[in-house]
Amino acid sequence: MNSLPSAEIIIVGGGAVGLGCAYALAKAGRRDILVIEREDREGAVTTSQGAGLCGQLRDSRERVELAMHSVRTFRELQVSDVKPDWNEVGSLRIAFNERRAAEFHHLVDVATEAGLEAMIISRSEASQRWPLMDFSSCTSIVWCPSDGYMTPSRVAASYRHNAAQLGVRFVPGTALEEVRIHQGRVSGIRTNRGTADCRYLVNSAGANAHHVSKMAGLDLPIVPVRHEYYVTLEMEGLTPDLPCFRIPEWTLYGRVRDGGLLLGGWEPKSLNVDPRRYPSECAPPPVVTDWPVLNSFTTSFKRLMPSADRVQSSWVGKGWPTFTPDGRFIIGESRRVPGFVMASGCNAHGISGSGGIGRLLVESLLDPNPGPYVRSLSPDRFTESSWSWDTAVADAARVYETYYGV
Ligand SMILES: Cc1cc2nc3c(=O)[nH]c(=O)nc-3n(C[C@H](O)[C@H](O)[C@H](O)COP(=O)(O)OP(=O)(O)OC[C@H]3O[C@@H](n4cnc5c(N)ncnc54)[C@H](O)[C@@H]3O)c2cc1C
């Protein structure tokens, strides 16, 4: 069997996360990197289905800073030869009750503390920014001018191109089959196309991240949960410069795409798959479009934008983003299996978070003294404690179902 080129760092999974990590590591001076991807091209699985929104308002300073780093990364890539199609159009966050309005004040305070510009604006100012929406019954609206959206497949292409410019190598059509361990630490891999030695193996295998961890003898609760959105046919008045929007009480988000309206949301009763129920060489079963769920998004949204009622859809985005029981990324090297490094469990913001995740991975691997936030994301929190799969799956589902919870 032919051998693959060996590398200091092998990254398994060429989605937004693996590619973002490759780019961040290469920028940090680590150039001996090989990215293996099972599909014929990178970015073809969950990443290709993303809605492409990037929001920076989060409930902790560290999470805001992570998102801000992603935005800086997208700006930087946007001036490269292959662009992620980053549109810094801003975002509106819309509340309809006082409790939510109080949360908005808190989010603005956290943003301000982190150095992110965000402010409460009036209903008339919001109307100027999104003329087709009727804001008359809103209680509070937050404007974040540096939020935006990108085209997920372009994000993948941009990371790949810019990482390759820095010397990163890519081998699509290559499936990881075995993680080789020598004297307790990672020493290499076996794939359908041969073997390769490495010092570090980064697991960014998306909905197969659980299986790849298992190959190294680690049990990690990374649970795929179904997610969907639709895009309408072109509608008059929808221009690409309109801000993204989020309506937490209705668990909806959206933006303009190709002259139509992209509308997605988080159902109160989610559908998940236990990753132990499908084998490592398979992705989760294909998502069947759930029209009652998608139609329920329209029913809610037309209260804010009545014209949204009249349009048909041109495209449905759907897939299995992964969730963790505590709703936090899993990033960093395992203490139990040195050389095995996680970059997964993205809780449905793996594209917008990819720039920040790359930075955290660099900090966890290359900084002799990583900060407390990075350490708190370590896979050790699951491998050094006891937990049950039933509870983990239920908790991960709850993270999805309460995505916009106060
Ligand atoms: C409908 C929908 C809307 C979304 N909207 C947004 C959004 O607006 N903003 C946002 O930030 N996120 C969004 N997300 C979430 C986002 O898509 C994911 O968080 C992100 O794509 C995860 O990237 P990834 O690289 O971890 O996974 P993937 O893109 O799935 O990449 C993992 C890769 O690993 C490969 N792989 C698996 N096993 C192996 C193996 N054994 N050997 C080799 N390769 C392997 C797979 O083929 C795959 O290409 C959305 C998701 C969905 C489904």
Protein architecture, described:
By secondary structure, the protein is α+β, with helices and mostly antiparallel strands. It folds into 2 domains: 7-49 and 153-223 and 324-401, FAD/NAD(P)-binding domain (3-Layer(bba) Sandwich); 53-150 and 227-269 and 285-319, D-Amino Acid Oxidase, Chain A, domain 2, CATH 3.30.9.10. Helices cover 31% and strands 24% of the residues. It has 12 helices and 20 strands. The chain has helices at residues 16-27, 46-49, 61-78, 98-114, 123-129, 152-165, 209-215, 291-301, 354-366, 372-376, 380-383, 389-401; strands at residues 7-12, 33-37, 53-54, 91-95, 119-121, 140-144, 148-149, 169-172, 176-182, 185-191, 194-203, 223-224, 227-232, 244-247, 252-257, 260-265, 313-319, 322-323, 330-333, 340-344. Strands 1, 2, 8, 9, 10, 11, 19 and 20 form an 8-stranded mixed beta sheet that branches. An 8-stranded mixed beta sheet has the order 5-6-4-14-15-16-13-17, with helices on both faces. Strands 3-7 form a two-stranded antiparallel ribbon. Helix 1 packs parallel to helix 6 (152-165). The mean pLDDT is 96. The structure holds flavin-adenine dinucleotide. Flavin-adenine dinucleotide (FAD) is lined by residues 12-18, 36-39, 44-47, 49-53, 175-176, 204-208, 212, 227-229, 264, 317-319, 321, 344, 346, 348-353. The site of flavin-adenine dinucleotide (FAD) has 44 residues, from helix 1, strand 2, helix 2, strand 13 and strand 17.
